[in-house]
Amino acid sequence: MVLDKETAKKTAALLLQINAIKLEPENPFTWASGWKSPIYCDNRIMLSYPEIRNFVREEMAKQVEKLYGKPDIIAGVATGAIGIGILVAEALGLPFIYVRPEPKSHGRQNQIEGSLPPGQSVVVIEDLISTGKSSLNAVRALKAQGAKVKGMVAIFTYGFPVATANFEQEEVELHTLSDYDHLIEQASETHYIKESQLQTLLQWKSSPQEWK
Domain ranges in the chain? Predict the structure, then answer.
């Protein structure tokens, strides 16, 4: 759920500005899942732009406080959300940990890096939500270690129904700075995309797994 329309559109505009999000309906990308997509998102790029990363840090920190007060710990999902997670934790003056997709195969075999005493309240920071599977995998790992996960705040979501269903099934609250609908609205209003491209982008959102 996006909390603020103005923030959602500004976030989308900034990500488009630095090519963290690319819209190329005529030259679709292929995701790791095999899906063809007219959009590619790599929010880690914003870490290279101080003004933009500061905006994202402050907006995410404000959302965390507005929604949950101050949790005990901020957790980032590896690897994409480690950078922004640290920035949010720093802004709030809170400890930071991060969660790997799976335990390491050597050493202490940690999946969670950092100090996580049992019973601590945690807000999870994520950079991008597609189906939500990897994000929710991190939540399950935190809960298995005794954490009380209050919710998740992400930079961007594609807004797929499957993601909504997955978060509801796991009973995890998700909030994002921006989403696909606000991105397309911003791109259309600023003439970043043509009318013909707009229709293609809307069609993709309705059935991405079947889009060619």
Answer: 5-210
Q: Which residues contact 175 (CB under 8 A, 6 or more apart)?
A: 1, 2, 3, 63, 67, 151, 152, 153, 154
pLDDT in tens, 40-97: 999 999 999 999 999 999 999 999 999 999 999 999 999 999 999 999 999 999 999 9
Strand ranges, E, within the chain = 21-23, 29-30, 36-37, 39-41, 73-77, 96-99, 112-113, 121-129, 148-157, 174-179
Buried b (16+ CB within 10 A) or exposed e, 189-206: eeebbeeebbebbeebbe
* % of the chain surpassing 90 pLDDT: 81
* Class (C level, CATH) for 5-210: alpha beta
pTM, two decimals, is 0.94
